Amino acid sequence: DMVKVAPFLLPSWWGQGAQPFLQYAAKEKTMKIIYWAIALGLVISAVNTWAANSEKPKMEMRAYGEYLKPKFDDFWDKAYGGGIQGVMWVNADFALAAGLGIQSWKVNEEIFGQRSGYASGLGVGEAHQIVGDATMVSLGASGMYDIPLGEKAKIRLEGGIRYVVISPSIDYEYAIAVTDGRYVYWEEYQYEVDIDNGFVGFIGADFDYDMGSGWRIFAGGGYQFDISKGDISAESLNIGENELAGAFIRGGVSRSF
């Protein structure tokens, strides 16, 4: 008699054995090099454009709040937070931005388990659960491109990368019970969960409206994807790979100067 089981919550010695994390290492290293090369190319292009333009570049500060629905919903339930960005416009349409953000990610606290019974009356049951949340601080860079929709409105396209520092406050709880038909014996275990930092990329689009006196409001959304996934572990147990991919919505204000 089986109940829903989340394979990533099982200990590394369960079933097929430990997950082969090392096979991704070479690929992830290559992806990091590619994305940093793209970021460096954007910076060089912006500096060259700025140098060729005699006018002082336009600066902008943005502040926003956001909500993200993780793709990895067996582990993560939801995330919300906000951030700030400093934007330098190198010409009328293209800009470079540097940003700092903070988010709170809530885990999916659903209980997973399995049980089995035998003709002799012996029964065994197990349950697994993760509880808590994680604070994530991101530092990133992006490129922006504006598409005018009139004198006041525009669509802003954005794409970039972020390095995410993860501070988890998460416990992995495991319980096993055995019964002989008359008595029940059980043990409970609790482990602190550790999650490695990671790299993500993102693409998004905002509707932006001019409120006057240099102030603008914006709202939009996009998608965040994994570039380099960190590992999730609970002491000696390898739980799996962390994924930060997901769709997000955001809104905020900006000020030009």
Could you describe the 3D structure shown?
- The chain has one helix at residues 25-52, and strands at 58-70, 76-89, 94-107, 112-117, 123-148, 153-179, 184-195, 198-212, 215-228, 231-234, 237-241, 246-256.
- It has an eight-stranded antiparallel β-barrel with strand order 1-2-3-5-6-8-9-12.
- The termini are far apart.
- It is mostly beta strands and 257 residues long.
- It has one helix and twelve strands.
Secondary-structure class: mainly beta
**What is the percentage of strand-forming residues?**
over 45%
Largest sheet, spatial ordering of strands: 1-2-3-5-6-8-9-12
The H/E string reads HEEEEEEEEEEEE
Cα separation of the termini: 66 Å
Count helical runs. 1
Approximately how much helix is present in the residues? 10-25%
Query: Main beta sheet: strand number and arrangement?
Result: 8 strands, antiparallel, barrel
Mean pLDDT: 81
Shape: elongated
Q: Any key phrases for this structure?
A:
257 residues; mainly beta; elongated; 12 strands; 1 helix; disordered N terminus
Briefly characterize the structure.
The protein has 257 residues and is mainly beta. The chain is 11% helix and 63% strand. The chain is elongated.
Helix and strand topology:
Blueprint: H1 25-52, E1 58-70, E2 76-89, E3 94-107, E4 112-117, E5 123-148, E6 153-179, E7 184-195, E8 198-212, E9 215-228, E10 231-234, E11 237-241, E12 246-256
Antiparallel strand pairs: 1-2, 1-12, 2-3, 3-5, 4-5, 5-6, 6-7, 6-8, 7-10, 8-9, 9-12, 10-11
